[in-house]
């Protein structure tokens, strides 16, 4: 139900979040600009869950405009509206700026802060609260108008995507399936060092939602559509389920091509000749973007496994293959 930001403006074709977690929960609160987590807790009541996504104009960080969208669900419309008012007011107090308007959305609360080149927009929609943040670190002189036009398109696209959204009743949360089609049980689990302190981040995403995990989501969308990706699990590895074996082969090639500029090929793990493995090409760069990785194919599945060194990644790739082949 959350469109890609590139659906609203195709210039925003990159996303930087290395962590696959996009869910927002009472145990994993939203990260809001100019607001601390304790302020969110102080100022809101009834926060249930949410989703976050991000996009940038440029591949390199901080050299172009960036957009972050957070969709926060509360127990009812009143709590969402109260959260909008209180969060917007506290944010304006923490980082003063100019009150501005978003064309077509007179009910939105928007603030432009020239000192940081931040544009922050809040909009309650029934039990949901939409928060859109933009920053423009390079344009001189700083101007709000072009950012407001982008936010207008993003909001319109987000609300259009939510038209078919029906909130799950709160008393049904406990009955929602955790492991759709058993895909998570065939995915390498997180080890102790990878787990969050309060909850397990392992998740199964519909194919459309999983696009938000990709570094080039608009490019990945074409590959997903071609391969017929319907489910993606993410835990100690990431597993993509394609329509068939041929689709999985094409998907693996596309995923590798998207990141080829930052990788150099290396040998596959012993006993796994079908795997394709890569090391970070430039060790001086942040390896979170291009970590050492193996792509492990099996039937209609492609697993993406990362590790800190050759021994670790070989062991994880072998274990992941066994989960797919013998589960």
Automatic annotation (TrEMBL):
It comes from the Bacteria. Residues 3-178, 183-325 form the DUF7373 domain. This is Uncharacterized protein. The lineage of its organism: Bacteria, Bacillati, Actinomycetota, Actinomycetes, Mycobacteriales.
């Amino acid at each position: 139900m959350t469109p890609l930001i590139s659906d609203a403006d195709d210039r925003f074709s990159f996303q930087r979040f290395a962590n696959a977690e996009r869910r927002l929960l009472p145990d994993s609160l939203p990260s809001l600009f100019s607001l601390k987590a304790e302020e969110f807790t102080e100022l809101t009541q009834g926060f249930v869950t949410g989703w976050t996504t991000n996009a940038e104009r440029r591949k390199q960080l901080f050299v172009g405009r960036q957009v972050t969208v957070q969709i926060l669900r509360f127990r009812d419309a009143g709590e969402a509206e109260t959260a909008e008012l209180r969060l917007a007011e506290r944010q304006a107090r923490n980082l003063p700026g100019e009150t501005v308007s978003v064309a077509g959305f007179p009910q939105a609360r928007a603030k432009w802060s020239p000192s940081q080149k931040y544009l922050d927009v809040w909009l309650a929609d029934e039990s949901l609260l939409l928060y859109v943040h933009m920053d423009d670190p390079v344009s001189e002189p700083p101007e709000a108008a072009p950012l407001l036009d982008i936010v207008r398109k993003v909001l319109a696209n987000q609300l259009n995507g939510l038209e078919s959204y029906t909130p799950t009743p709160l008393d049904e949360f406990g009955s929602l399936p955790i492991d759709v089609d058993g895909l998570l049980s065939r995915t390498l689990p997180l080890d102790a060092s990878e787990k969050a302190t309060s909850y397990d981040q392992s998740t199964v995403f519909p194919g459309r939602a999983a696009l938000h995990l990709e570094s080039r989501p608009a490019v990945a969308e074409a590959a997903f559509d071609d391969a017929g990706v319907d489910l993606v699990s993410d835990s100690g590895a990431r597993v993509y389920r394609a329509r068939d074996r041929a689709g999985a082969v094409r998907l693996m090639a596309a995923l590798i091509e998207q990141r080829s500029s930052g990788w150099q090929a290396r040998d596959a793990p012993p006993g796994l000749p079908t795997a394709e493995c890569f090391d970070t090409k430039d060790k001086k760069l942040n390896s979170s973007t291009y970590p050492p990785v193996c792509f492990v194919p099996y039937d209609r599945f492609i697993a993406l496994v990362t590790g800190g060194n050759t021994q670790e990644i070989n062991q994880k790739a072998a274990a992941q293959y066994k989960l797919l082949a013998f589960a």
